[in-house]
Sequence to fold (273 residues):
Amino acid sequence: MNKNVATEFSYAVPVEGTDARALLSPAAVHPKSLLDLPSGEARESLLAVHGILRAVLPPGKLEIYEAGGGSTSFLPLSVLDRAHVTVVDIDEDQIRNNDYAQQTILGDIQRHRFERETFDLVICYNVIEHLPDVEAALLRFCEALKQGGLILIGAPNPKSLSGVVTKYSPHWFHVWFYRHVRGDKNAGLPGQAPFPTFFHPLVSLPRLEAFARAHGLQLIYRREYESPRFPEMRTRKPVLAALLDGFAVLANLLLPGKADVRRGDYHVILRKR
Ligand SMILES: C[S@@+](CC[C@H](N)C(=O)[O-])C[C@H]1O[C@@H](n2cnc3c(N)ncnc32)[C@H](O)[C@@H]1O
Fold:
């Protein structure tokens, strides 16, 4: 069974587009990864990303490269349905569990090269924080992208509360958090999140934007949003969530600027000029 298609839905998700699309169930329009997100900024931003992809990607058959795609896609089903998807992932178990790609390649996205101008879309979602050399991967994406093609990056914000904790805590703590706070019993098993993190400097949004400017990539969408871990915790672990929310309010007051330290993740869409 395709794990990217939700098998049940019990809550409404805004459905964008035509009247016909609005008549479809959320499970027929959105990937399970989106329906699994708690209501909040993360889901809002992913819906906005989906709207842009539907509007900007060319009509007809699409060539998509999911770099570090693992076994879960965050793309809208209407895009996946008309795409030939190539996944490159370094983890054998992730590749084995992938059920949505037409082609899977066991490899390292920092080194793997495709023919120039092959893809309409490169998506690298929840991956760049795991790479020791983000620049090498981004350069490979640029050369593999057609002119006018898009790069979608979803990544953690290193300057947020969750970013700082993830960056400076050991891997065993990440596994503990996934198991005991998120309730994911499989966390840390082969092919299962969390994966070891490096937080190369290019994961930071200002540096990523500077890289884009220097390499002929136009920024067409950028949003920092509250990490979905917060709404998840408010439901699963309300006391811990209240403590962290209190800490975040205090940090927001004391730190310079108007940033909310709960904005733990971002989406960026870049277009090759
Ligand atoms: C957190 S998972 C994200 C998977 C999927 N994109 C998602 O959002 O569910 C990170 C993925 O990156 C892969 N990965 C990490 N380093 C990699 C590398 N150098 N080359 C290819 N894949 C890599 C891991 O094996 C894992 O599947």
In short: The beta strands are 62-67, 83-89, 103-106, 119-125, 145-156, 217-225, 265-272. Confidence is low (pLDDT under 50) at residues 6-12.
